[in-house]
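U., I forgot to send this yesterday:
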Amino acid sequence: MTNPAPSLIDRAVELLRLGELVILPTDTVYGIAADARNDEAVTAIYRAKQRDPGQPLQLLFGRDPALLEQYADLTPAARRLVDALGPGAWTIIVPCRPGWSSPALSGGSTVGFRIVPVDLVLDIVDALGAPLAATSANVSGGPSPVTAEEAARQVGAFCAMTIDAGPTAQGIDSTVIDLSGPEPLVLREGAITANQLASILGVASIPVRRSVRS
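Result:
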């Protein structure tokens, strides 16, 4: 991936604050993103993707851990994974902070969060001062896009901006692990395996249940 000009980051932040959608590259696939504080913009992601409103979106955070604490109630297991993995190809589901609601939660009380190891995304979140509600930039059921062209072809008509940084590094969706219940559960095995997660958490194994549509 190439590094977009700083002016593109400024423009993306401006559009997000106006309630627009932006296509941006992550370490895994291209994503479609909105300011998580703007309910109308978050709802627009569902329309763009033809996504079931009952399927929650993930939140992308930046470098400030205090921002994450405002939205997510981090369990000890979640802290352990974040500390061990650092920014990476994972999505961790934990209880959300009481009193916060969003269409991104699909009426639930949990939130899936990511810290993407891509400076562009971290810079956008830090400059916005809020997390991004995001998911892969494809029509639900379609191929996850590894180039800006693929993303724009599927959902570009609904987005005010597409940031092209070349092909993504991995092309594999993030691994989704649910830590909101009594036992960990992998909902989607992606770039990080269930065995790797089990090793970090010190358990023999973690069940895998494919239930997340991209």
